[in-house]
Amino acid sequence: MQQHKLPREKIPWFPTIDYDACIGDRECLDFCKNGVFSWDEPLGRPLVAEPYNCVLGCDACAQICPVEAIHFPAKDDLRLTIRELLAAQPYEPACAGGQP
After folding, report:
1. Exposed / middle / buried, residue 69 (Cβ in 10 Å: 0-12, 13-18, 19+)
2. 8-93: CATH architecture
């Protein structure tokens, strides 16, 4: 089976925050263990500081937000992006017996 290394920065999967809806309860910051969020102390709100730390397909922070202030792209768009990136990669056939 061929292994693929997709450039994470070409996959736009990360949260966006609706600051009009956000109540600043820090749930997202406390929940995410991947360091996606940081806290803007002067404004009292979360920031998406490391968007590419977000696990592809994970939207758990949006699920736990009590006011639905966190949004993600559609998962169908994520699948399409991954398919397009895979199709653009050169094909490298597997070698029989592990020999080149």
Report:
1. buried
2. 2-Layer Sandwich (3.30)
